[in-house]
Design goal:
The protein is mostly helical. The chain is about 55% helix and about 5% strand. It has one domain. Strand 2 and strand 3 form a beta hairpin.
Length: about 140
């Protein structure tokens, strides 16, 4: 898969300091946890833009929720990096063959659950979309 360096740069250009400060203040996260979560969130955005349905980790989801709270900034940031709004769908309740599956992707078994193939956990997709450490390490942590 071709690495989109221009997209990585756009994502790295996002100013997420306000979100980072809120995570420290409201969630009482350590600075290190915030830095790791924001770096992972930037990778998540990259994959979400290229692929679509991606299930975030809990920390990525928390960063995403906090980003969305700043609605005007979130809309502008999405327009800048993706040209569109990146919609959030709750992944804990995903319809599977007309029923609600609250155990979506448990134990990384998406392939075995009809209807979930389009939604894959972030950690499974990471090596497919960002296969080398040098590219992986190019995302900012703040």
């Amino acid at each position: 898969m071709e690495i989109k360096l221009d997209l990585i740069q756009k994502i790295n250009d996002l100013d997420l300091t306000q979100i980072a400060a809120r995570l420290v203040r409201k969630n009482r996260w350590t600075q290190k946890r915030v830095e790791v979560a924001i770096m992972e969130y930037r990778k998540f955005l990259y994959i979400a833009i290229l692929r679509g349905a991606v299930e975030p980790s809990k920390d990525i989801d928390e960063v995403w929720h906090n980003h969305i709270l700043y609605t005007e900034k979130y809309a502008k940031d999405c327009a800048h990096i993706a040209g569109r709004l990146i919609h959030h769908t709750p992944y804990d309740l995903i319809a599977v063959n007309g029923a609600i599956c609250s155990e979506a992707c448990d134990a990384c078994a998406c392939e075995d659950k009809p209807g979930l193939k389009d939604t894959m956990p972030f950690h499974i997709l990471l090596n497919e979309y960002l296969p080398t450490d040098s590219v992986n390490d190019s995302f900012k942590s703040n």
